[in-house]
C-alpha cells in the first residue's frame, strides 16, 4: 500500500494530465481523429513496439544523440575546467558562451546542412553545439567551487598540472558535470528529433513526420510517448551512473 501511495505522489502530475486528457476525450470536445483516447494510444504504442520501422529509425536517432553528446562532453569538460583556472582563457571564452547561450543553435541548422550535408553530420554538429553550452557552464562553476585547500595541498605535495586535473579538479567538479549532462542530454534528444523533422529520410523525427502525413494521430502520439520514455530512461541512467561512481 505504501508503495502504491509513493508511486501516486511521485507521478501525481502525470496522472492528473492523463485524467484531464481522458476527460476531454469523453466530453468529445475535439474530434476523436485528432484527439484519440489513452486506450487507443496505448494499444497503438504496443503495436508499434513490434514493428521494425520504429526501432530502425530510433537506432539512427540514438547514434546521432550519443555521438553529438559525447563530443560535447569531451570538448566541453576541459574547456570549463581551464576557464576556471586561467583568467586568460576565461576572458577569451566567456563572451562566446555568454553571448552564444541565448542563440537557438538550431537556427543555424541550414548552414550546417550546406557544410555537412543532409545526413548525420549536420545533425550531430547541431546536437554538439546545443549540448556543449550547459556542459561548459556547469563544469566552469563546478570547478570554481572546488575547495582551494585541496589545490594547495596537491601543489605542496608536488603535483603537476596534469595530476591536479585528474586528482583534484575533475573529481571535485564531477557532481556539477553530471548536472550539466542531465541538462544537455534531453536537449540533445529534442534537437535530434527536430532536425530529423526538418530534413531527413531516417530517424525518429522523420518517422513522426511520416506518420503525421498519414493523418494517424494515435501513432504520432504513441511515438511521442516512446520518445518521452526514452528521454526519461536516459536521465535515470545518468542518475544511476552518478550515484554509483560519483559517491562523494
Describe what is shown at a glance:
The chain contains 11 helices and no strands.
Task: Note down, in words, how this protein is organized.
With 248 residues, the protein is mainly alpha-helical. It folds into two domains: 1-30; 37-245, MetI-like (MetI-like fold). The chain is 82% helix and 0% strand. The chain has eleven helices and no strands. Helix 3 crosses helix 11, helix 4 (52-85) packs parallel to helix 7 and helix 9 packs parallel to helix 10 (204-213). The longest helix has 38 residues, at 161-198. The two termini are 34 Å apart. 30% of the residues are buried. The mean pLDDT is 88.
- Indicate how many domains the architecture comprises: 2
Give the helix level as a range of percent. Answer: over 70%
CATH class of the largest domain: Mainly Alpha
Element string (H = helix, E = strand):
HHHHHHHHHHH
Alpha-carbon Rg, integer: 22 Å
Main sheet attributes: strand count, strand direction, barrel closure: none
CATH architecture of the largest domain: Orthogonal Bundle
Tally of DSSP helical segments: 11
The end-to-end span amounts to: 34 Å
Key structural traits:
single chain, 11 helices, 0% strand, mainly alpha, MetI-like fold, 2 domains, 248 residues
Helix/strand layout:
Layout: H1 2-10, H2 12-27, H3 38-49, H4 52-85, H5 87-100, H6 109-116, H7 120-144, H8 148-156, H9 161-198, H10 204-213, H11 217-245
Helix pairs in contact: 3-11, 4-5, 4-7, 4-9, 4-10, 6-7, 7-9, 9-10, 9-11, 10-11
Amino acid at each position: 500500500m505504501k508503495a502504491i501511495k509513493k508511486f501516486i505522489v511521485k507521478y501525481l502530475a502525470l496522472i492528473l494530465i492523463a485524467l484531464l486528457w481522458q476527460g476531454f476525450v469523453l466530453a468529445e470536445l475535439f474530434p476523436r481523429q485528432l484527439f484519440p483516447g489513452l486506450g487507443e494510444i496505448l494499444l497503438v504504442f504496443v503495436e508499434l513496439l513490434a514493428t521494425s520501422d520504429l526501432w530502425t529509425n530510433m537506432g539512427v536517432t540514438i547514434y546521432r544523440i550519443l555521438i553529438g553528446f559525447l563530443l560535447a562532453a569531451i570538448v566541453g569538460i576541459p574547456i570549463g575546467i581551464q576557464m576556471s583556472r586561467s583568467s586568460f582563457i576565461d576572458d577569451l571564452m566567456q563572451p562566446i558562451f555568454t553571448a552564444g547561450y541565448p542563440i537557438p543553435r538550431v537556427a543555424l541548422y541550414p548552414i550546417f546542412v550546406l557544410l555537412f550535408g543532409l545526413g548525420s553530420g549536420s545533425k550531430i554538429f547541431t546536437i554538439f553545439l546545443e549540448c556543449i553550452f550547459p556542459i561548459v557552464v556547469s563544469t566552469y562553476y563546478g570547478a570554481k567551487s572546488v575547495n582551494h585547500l585541496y589545490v594547495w595541498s596537491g601543489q605542496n605535495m608536488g603535483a603537476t598540472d596534469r595530476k591536479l586535473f585528474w586528482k583534484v579538479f575533475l573529481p571535485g567538479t564531477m557532481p556539477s558535470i553530471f548536472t550539466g549532462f542531465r541538462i544537455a542530454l534531453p536537449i540533445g534528444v529534442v534537437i535530434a528529433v527536430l532536425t530529423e523533422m526538418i530534413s531527413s529520410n531516417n530517424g525518429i523525427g522523420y518517422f513522426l513526420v511520416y506518420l503525421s502525413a498519414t493523418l494517424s494521430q494515435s501513432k504520432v502520439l504513441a511515438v511521442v510517448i516512446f520518445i518521452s520514455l526514452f528521454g526519461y530512461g536516459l536521465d535515470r541512467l545518468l542518475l544511476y551512473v552518478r550515484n554509483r561512481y560519483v559517491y562523494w
